[in-house]
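Q: Convert this sequence to structure tokens.
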Amino acid sequence: MRVLVVDDHQELLTLVSQALERDGHVVRQAADVEQARRALEEEEVEVIVLDVGLPDGSGLVLCRELRREGIQTPILILTAHNRVDERVEGLDSGADDFLGKPFAVAELRARVRALGRRRERASTVQVRLGDVVLDFGKREALRADSRVPITAREWSILEALASRGGRVMSRDELLESIWGDTSTGAVSSLEVLVGRIRRKLGDDVVRTLRGAGYGLGRG
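A:
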């Protein structure tokens, strides 16, 4: 895969790039927002690894701008402040995954591979649930042929459940998959988001099995 790594710390930038190159990825480096923008204009990449704190701007702001421009490339955010509120802000900005510093290089490599697989699945997967159509490639949801606005955080839940092919996913598995956090605050956020999805798309889109977890559709 072609991966863009954006970080202003040269030592970390080199470490991450070399690790990904050992996995066979082609890595493009950028040290700030301007360089990242230039890289994305010059070539298409399949995953972006993006630091939050950059010398000429915020990685979260850049992430939000890319999504507004229709760029749906999976984005892994690196942050020195691994707090729930920051992860929530990042997911609302359109990020796909988070990794707090310091991190194990092996975990970063695994998360990049997972995002690459998600992109491959999303490019072709379309799920129909009654009068609801979920197009994961376009991140477009239709209900009775009318478009329904779905936030990035809500999409992350739907994508995780869709990856199970209708099988049930435990609450902790789902939380670990989308946020890497199973705290009480994360559980509350998940319940709120599932409620929003049901109000937008109908109660049958996300089902809850008491004591087991969540599934996509009626099952």
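The chain has a mean pLDDT of 87.
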